Amino acid sequence: xxxxxxxxxxxxASGRYHTIxxxxxxxxxxxxxxxxxxxxxxxxxxxxxxxxxxxxxxQAILEATYTHAKNLATFVFTYxxxxxxxCEIESKPREYHSFIAAFIGGYLVFGKYNKINEQINLYxxxxxxxxxxxxxxxKGYIPSPPEGKTFPWFGAIIWGLVLWQFEHHQHTxxxxxxxxxxxxxxxxxKWDNFKNFLIYNR
Length: 202
Hints:
It is built from eight helices and no strands. By secondary structure, the chain is mainly α.
């Protein structure tokens, strides 16, 4: 056993098969990271907002965790495999390889509609837009530094838009956001005794 472990360690340290091993480790990291992110989120959201038998709650938590981990691992595997192939074809890495590989992986993995993919895609959309603005500033397309403080305006516009949408076009928002906002802004208008005023919602 010790001899075989030493042989594996020697292979890993040698640098041989680095591309293939990095794809395998990327898949592993996708499983671990997806599980770490989704399990506590699913646990908290299920305990706070979903009723029903404990067995159904546990099943919902495990299914959400499995889906997130599987999809992230599959995407990492696909992305790393495709970037390696493109690099091999062109003899060196190029900037557009990452876009092509992620585009294909995104279509195959995160293009299948389910609640987990919807949440991940929406999470990334906000980060991408924010990152693009910063990139445009760095490249000089947007003046830098902008005059005055910009973050307060960013917060004001985002919150102004989302509450306007919620109050007047609620159906256009993601269901989980509708639920959260209903709890905060509409359910707080309803009570008829001390218990459902302060101790529980309804």
